[in-house]
């Protein structure tokens, strides 16, 4: 018994102490710093004041807290919370760094944004004007950090000066010690009138403020504050909104009674003194008038407050989205628009075309339904007949009036206001809309707000469209440069390969000539010649892709070219595919190489057959005539070397499998193919052929809906179409004379020397233009012809030809190259070139090329000897 008494006594004492502590209330230390009107210490009575102080007082009364405010700077407050010297701090923005040592409430206490103030003598119109300026910020403050990050992003060099408080920042700016300073919007709007500073248009993105404690401590404080904030923000008549309104508008002048009221009251008093009999009558009248005046004054105060609130919201919305772009801008816009209008749903969408109809795609939304990326047709929506510059307004019953509009049905919308987003030409590019679950009481106010924000949204949408067009143009240029580089590579490879084939074909021709016709080896030599020609065909395709293929350009009727190869086309396609020709009569001729045009047609038709595969289908070959202007070329055939004028159109369409966008983006890449046994040069060669003919192409294709290739050839206004008959060749006379052979490839000089010897000609060999010029000057009287390659080191064939022709204009020069004739000697046409021989060539082709100039040279020599 006695042993247990002290323990019971101790328990009683502890319980009493606990009751005493409970009665006294829980002590809560709060950091206070200068952040007018949110929280600050009054300089006169040293009491903590501001709307955060009012909120804390309300919660403390409910929870039984004893509040103690610990004054200091913002940085000191953060440090004290971290060390546990104070329990709570207000006005804390959530950042990754602070979350390492602070615990934040779940409910935001207030939303602010960063403002930049300037000295009246300093012009700051944009963020770029901060370059070279002294800018005051508070250490550890998110507002200053935001401006610093923005300056870093724009590579703006300025000096950031640390200040202990926002008050000192405005003092420094006003005194000229600072050029500019950064404060939160709450402090700036409340205190800017007390200093000679200018609020600049530079407004940085908004952020939320929270109550915060040290990490792992005082979770009950945050829970109590979260309950208060959640309930208070939802109730417009709560003490939360009362505290914010009282302090935010504390410096706003209020309406007063009209000046004539005191006079009226004095007059009424005088009448009461002089006419006691009328006291009651006048009293009743004065009381009635006073009630009307007070009611009127209250109405004016309410209207003025609402107007200021609306102006503040509009400014906040405009400021909040001013520094953002793209998707961030649109999301900020609809979020702030919802706050400004009180709408349940706000969204912004852009237009696009699908199957000839206008559709809308949601870019950003606030509220339920219509997630970004949702697409729906414009038809059947309230904005279907939206006129340029107009609005579509439905105060009530909008969902029932438009049952086909999925977004409205998903929202359960009752009221709706939509505004068009237009480009510089007034064309509809999108819609900005607000919707409510209840009827709209004041449609005019919503319309006015929507007009303000739709103009800014239109400008951003136009900026986005221009940026998309710029990126698309860059992609087209990069693609064109890539194709050009590949074309140069393909042309170089084909040129070098043609040199090898020239040597092979030369020795092969010599072997065929020297062997007896009845020799068993002739069969194998003939097979080798066919193989070499097949290799030559491949190099021609590579040259065609590079735009340097050999063209024999004449005036041709496209219809006739197609008719001549109809049988070839029919046997080249699938048995289940049907070939149909729809050739327009009376087409003008085109200047083209018939063989190259046939290659284009054959490749397109066989590709169409491959697309149809084993199924039944139709391949349609169509021709037409059309005059194309600059606008059409820029919009439809951009990036292709074409000039306005008349064009003959060749169109090859099929009912096959079609192509995806990914396949269409690569079909012209060399060696890209979807065929199991394809080499991927067919369409690449077509593109080179079209470039060489200054023609263009457009492709239409969708998966499962077939493909159409539309080719545009420049038409010849007047001209004679090439005939099919040729004059009979005269009997060939034997050749004689001396040929100067110029080529840097020894394998070619060996082969061609043997070929010239087989033709009965003498040969002198030079390995570059400089050697050729020296040998020519030594033996010019004995030379009858020069056969010279164009591409050589030290001095190429072009330079050597000019020198030889200047000294001996009568000496015939035949040029040779692995590239086409137009590419190689176009600059020499009409300037004395006796002929052109494209590699690889046979003995017969060599003889045909050099025979005419040698015969003319022999005739000249006979004429000179006769004299």
Automatic annotation (TrEMBL):
The keyword Transferase applies. The keyword Plastid does not apply. Residues 1-23 form the signal peptide. Residues 738-854 form the Response regulatory domain. Residues 492-717 form the Histidine kinase domain. Its EC number is 2.7.13.3. GO terms for molecular function: phosphorelay sensor kinase activity. It comes from the Bacteria. This is histidine kinase.
